[in-house]
């Protein structure tokens, strides 16, 4: 029971932080922000999901936007020498609340093209299952072998999204499905096998779920 309560509390903290960031970002920059990653699956209903931070795609992050967010109490800094990657911190809601949340930010300049694949949930623009499954399939192969925990979470997110798409009989629109070329899919399966130590069971499971959701054709083979 304690672990369930702890997870529920963490989910509440993540939801609050997502709303605080999203509200501040829209207000001070006039831009758009889309919640992706594990935080998105939580808002979509994946109540067993564990995550420590949030991930947002944002339409812009010019120096003046960073300054405005810092002034609004959302602390943003550039990651290394990259132009489009930032880290943010949503501070504690009150002293000693211990609910500060870290956020990874990526500038997505064509973000308007993604809006049709989002939902508004509790005041936050959230990537839906169609967009999430594409993003997860694309990003999992980029994880290092040392990132086994994140790879496991990505894998679970793909399976969860595939199940939801199947249950709701929702298919990917062409604009998203074309991003999952045969090479992208093969890279995904190869990464799953690599991170599972060569165990083909996870690969077989992934194929089953992706075929079930009509992400890949029944005829797909390695």
Distance N terminus to C terminus?
Answer: 43 Å
The number of distinct helices, counting runs of at least 4 residues, comes to: 8
Structural class: alpha+beta
Strand segment tally = 7
CATH topology of the largest domain: Beta Polymerase, domain 2
The coarse overall form would be globular
Q: Which architecture of the largest domain per CATH?
A: 2-Layer Sandwich
Number of domains: 2
Whole-number radius of gyration? 18 Å
Unreliable sequence segments? none
Arrangement of strands in the largest sheet? 1-2-5-4-3
Report the β-strand fraction as a percent range.
15-25%
Q: If you average the pLDDT, what whole number results?
A: 93
The major sheet is characterized as: 5 strands, mixed
Helix content, binned percent: 40-55%
CATH class of the largest domain: Alpha Beta
The helix-strand sequence is HEHEHEEEEEHHHHH
């Amino acid at each position: 029971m304690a672990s369930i309560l702890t997870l529920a509390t963490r989910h509440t903290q993540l939801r609050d932080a997502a709303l605080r960031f999203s509200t501040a970002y829209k207000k001070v920059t006039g831009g758009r922000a889309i919640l992706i990653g594990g935080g998105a699956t939580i808002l979509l209903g994946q109540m067993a999901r564990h995550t420590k931070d949030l991930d947002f795609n944002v339409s812009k992050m010019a120096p003046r936007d960073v300054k405005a967010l810092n002034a609004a109490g959302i602390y943003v800094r550039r990651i290394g020498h990259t132009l489009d990657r930032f880290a943010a911190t949503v501070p504690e809601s009150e002293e000693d609340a211990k609910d500060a949340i870290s956020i990874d930010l990526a500038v997505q300049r064509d973000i308007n093209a993604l809006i049709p694949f989002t939902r508004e949930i509790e005041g936050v623009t959230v990537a839906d299952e169609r967009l999430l499954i594409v993003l997860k399939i694309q990003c999992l192969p980029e994880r290092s072998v040392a990132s086994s925990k994140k790879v496991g979470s990505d894998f679970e997110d793909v399976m969860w999204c595939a199940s939801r798409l199947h249950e709701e009989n929702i298919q990917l629109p062409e604009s998203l499905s074309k991003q999952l070329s045969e090479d992208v899919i093969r890279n995904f399966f190869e990464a799953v096998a690599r991170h599972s130590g060569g165990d083909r069971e996870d690969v077989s499971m992934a194929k089953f779920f992706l075929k079930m959701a009509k992400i890949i054709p029944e005829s797909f083979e390695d």
